[in-house]
Amino acid sequence: MRMNLMMRLVLCVLRKVPKTGGFLFRDVPSSAALPIIRPTLGRQHSMSDRAKNAMQGYLNHFLGNIDIVNSQEVCRFLEVSRLSFLPEYGPKLKEDYIMVKHLPKIQRDDDSRKCCSCQWFGCCKDNWQKVWAVLKPGFLAFLKDPCEPEPLDIIVFDVLPASDGNGEGRVSLAKEIKDGNPLRHYFRVSCGSRCIKLRTKSDAKVKDWVAAINDAGLRPPEGWCHPHRFGSYAPPRGLTEDGSQAQWFVDGESAFEAIALAIEEAKSEIFICGWWLCPELYMRRPFHTNASFRLDALLEAKAKQGVQIYILLYKEVAIALKINSVYSKRKLVGIHENVRVLRYPDHFSSGVYLWSHHEKIVIVDHQICFIGGLDLCFGRYDSPEHKVGDCPPLIWPGKDYYNPRESEPNSWEDTMKDELDRKKYPRMPWHDVHCALWGPPCRDAARHFVQRWNYAKRNKAPREQAIPLLMPQHHMVIPHYMGMSSEMDNGSNGVARPHKNIKRHDSFSSGAWFS
What we know:
This protein is α+β, with helices and mostly antiparallel strands. 24% of the residues lie in helices and 16% in strands. It has a seven-stranded antiparallel sheet with strand order 4-3-2-1-7-6-5, with helices on one face. It has a seven-stranded mixed sheet with strand order 8-14-13-12-9-10-11, sandwiched between helices. The termini are far apart. The C terminus is likely disordered. Its EC number is 3.1.4.4.
C-alpha cells in the first residue's frame, strides 16, 4: 500500500510537470529506483524492515530536488503549504483544495467572463472558486494555492450563540448541507457576521472537514467558540495561572515613553488603533532633544528595518470633528511602503453617523499591548504636575499646546506653528490612565485588532493588494526586555514565570506589578 502511495506521488508530479522549464524528467526517480523485494517464508520482520528502508531512501531521493518539493502537486499530495509549520499560527490541522462560494467583494481573476445573469441567478460555475483551505486552531484561511503566503479570505473563530433561534440547539461552526443532488457535497462555515458555503468531492470529505473545523473552534486552551463570562470574545485570563501581567500608567508622560520604547524593540509587526493619531507627536520631552522620539520617526525607523506596521484610524464626520484623519493617513502612508493605513467607517455609503470607535491600542509583536484612554495625538501628553503654561516652548511644541475650549486648529499642515498665544491662553491639562499587558491578554487584544482590520479591509479595500488580510497568532512570547526567561506556549503545560527581580524602565509608573 505504501508503495502505491509513492507511485501516486511520482505520477501526480509527472502528469503536471511542463515539458519546458522547471525541473527535468530525469530529476524524478523512476520505479526502477526501488529494489525488488521478494516475499520469503519465515522472514516477515526482516522483509518489512527492508521495505521501509527502501521507501525511505526512495522518498528522500525524490524530495531532494527543491523544484519538486515546491510544486503544487507535491504540496497537495502531502497536504502542506507555506502556512503549515509556521509556529506563530499554531499546529497543522487540516489542509486541502476545496471549492468556495466567495463573497462578492473577494477579488477574482475571471470577473470579466461572467454572463449578465450570473449576478442574479448564479447560473455559471464561476460562482465557485477553487482555493487551498488551511485550518489552524484559531482560524480557517483560504489561499490561491499551497505556495501562496497571503490569504484570499479568512474566518477568525469567535464565540457562537447558544441557540440558532429555531430550537435546534447550539449553533455549530461548521455544518453539513444536504442537497437533492447526490453528486453535490456541501458544508457551511458560519461565525459572527461571516457565512461561507463550501463544496468538496465526496460526503466523506465533507464529514472530515466539518468535524475538523468544529473541533478546532472548541479545542482547549482557548476554545474560541465557547461562550465566555460576560459575553466576552476571549476567556478570562489569570495573573498567576497563565503568566499574564499588567502595568498601569497615569498621564501621558510615562505611557508615551513606554510605548516609544516598545516600538523601538519591535521585530516583526506593530498594530495601532486609535480615534485620533498625530504623526508629529513627540513621545518623549523636551522635544528639542528628542527628535528621534517623534512618532513618525519611530515608525519610519522600524519600517525600514522590515517591521510591518498596520494602523486603523477612525474616519470622522468632517463637519463635526476637526481631527483630519485624511491628513494623518497621508503622512503615515508616505513614511514607507511597510506602513499600511485604513480609515473606517465610510459614513455616507454605510449610513453610520452617530458612533465612533474610541479604542486606543498599540500592540508590538503580539508580545506587549498598550490599551486605555490615551490617543497618540496632540493635547494628551501631560505629567502629574499638569502645568498649564509653556513659554518659551520646551514641552508642548506648536499645536500640541492645545486648548479646544479657546480655539480648535483649522489646519494640521504646520504642526509646529502655535495655534494659541501662549502668553494669553493656558493649555488644557489632560489627566488619563493607560495600561500595558503581557501574556495571553496581549494576544487577545491582537486577535481583536485582526478581526477589526479584516472587517475594514473587506468593506473598504477588498481589491487593494497593498492592504493584506491579517491572521491571528497562536502562541505568545514574553519579551526579553520585561524579564521573562522563556517562551510561553499556550499549547504546552509549562508556564513561563518572571524573574524575581524584574527590571522596569524609569519611564514606567511607580505602581507595583500585579502579581
